[in-house]
Amino acid sequence: xxxxxxxxxxxxxxxxxxxxxxxxxxxxxxxxxxxxxxxxxxxxxxxxxxxxxxxxxxxxxxxxxxxxxxxxxxxxxxxxxxxxxxxxxxxxxxxxxxxxxxxxxxxxxxxxxxxxxxxxxxxxxxxxxxxxxxxxxxxxxxxxxxxxxxxxxxxxxxxxxxxxxxxxxxxxxxxxxxxxxxxxxxxxxxxxxxxxxxxxxxxxxxxxxxxxxxxxxxxxxxxxxxxxxxxxxxxxxxxxxxxxxxxxxxxxxxxxxxxxxxxxxxxxxxxxxxxxxxxxxxxxxxxxxxx
Length: 291
Ligand SMILES: NC(=O)c1ccc[n+]([C@@H]2O[C@H](COP(=O)([O-])OP(=O)(O)OC[C@H]3O[C@@H](n4cnc5c(N)ncnc54)[C@H](OP(=O)(O)O)[C@@H]3O)[C@@H](O)[C@H]2O)c1
Description:
With 291 residues, the protein is an alpha/beta fold. The protein has a single domain (2-219, 246-289), classed as NAD(P)-binding Rossmann-like Domain (Rossmann fold, 3-Layer(aba) Sandwich). It has ten helices and 14 strands. The strands form five sheets. Strands 2-1-3-4-5-10 form a six-stranded parallel sheet. Strand 1, helix 1 and strand 2 form a beta-alpha-beta unit. The protein is globular, with a radius of gyration of 19 Å. NADP nicotinamide-adenine-dinucleotide phosphate binds at residues 6-13, 30, 33-36, 56-58, 60, 75, 97, 99, 147-150, 156-158.
C-alpha cells in the first residue's frame, strides 16, 4: 500500500516508520505538510493518491489546550475534518488517532468503543469533535483509533519527553517523589501500538469506525512509576498522592483504561503493560540497567 503518514517526528509516527517493512510510506514533516493548512492537505492527498492516510498529528498538551482553545479545535478537529474530506475525494482510508480523554472516567471497567463519551476538558472535547468530524465527513473512509498514555523511543516533544524518561530523570535529581494514584490508565508503548495498527490496516475485516488500541492491563501513574523503578532497580522513596484528577482547575478522568474489544475480535492483541515496559526499557536503556 501507499501510505501518507503525518507526524513522523512524533512518538507514534516514529514507531510506525520503524515497524513498517512492507508499505511505501511517504512521511513529510510539519514544514512540508502542516495540517492546519486545508489547501496543502488537499493538494498533497490529491497528488499522492495514497491508499491510506495516517494522521498522528495532534495538539495534545492537555493544560495548554485550555489556554490555546482555538488552536486545539483547529488541529484536533477542523484539520481532521479537512483530511477526511480530502480522503473521501480520492477514496483513501483515513486513520486518525484519538484519546481516552473523550471519557469522563465514571466507569470502573475498561471503556469499550461504543461506551458513552463525555469529555471533561478542552483537549478531550476537541478530540471528540475530531472523531465526529472524521466519521461524519467520510463515514465510508474513516477509522478513529483511541489510545492512552503513550511512551515511545522518541519522546513527545510537545510534552518535554515521555513519562518513563521523565521518571528516570527524576530519580537522578530526587531522593523522594510524589506520584498520582488517582487516575487509572492504560499506558501504551508506541511500538506495540504501531505493530497493532499495521496489522489492523492490513486486515480484510477492517471497517470504518472507532477502535481502541492499548497495552493490556490498567494501573495508576503511581503503580506505573513503581514498575519503572523496580525494573530499573532504582531506589527512590515514592509516595502516592490523590489530587482527585485535578490539574489546577482542570479535571482529568479518574478512570480511562480502554478495552480493545473490536481489534481483539479481529485477532489483534497487544502485550501486557509490564511486558511492554520491559521491552521499552531494554531497547532504550539496555538490559544491563534492568533487574
Ligand atoms: N501521547 C499520549 O499520551 C497520547 C494519549 C492518548 C492519545 N494520543 C494521541 O495519539 C496521537 C499521537 O500522539 P504522539 O504522542 O505520538 O504525539 P507527538 O509525539 O506529540 O507527535 C505529534 C506529531 O504531530 C506533528 N504535528 C503537530 N501539529 C502538526 C501540524 N499542525 N501539522 C503537521 N504535523 C503536526 C508533530 O510535529 P512536530 O515535531 O513538528 O511538532 C509530531 O510529529 C495523537 O493524536 C494524540 O492525541 C496521545
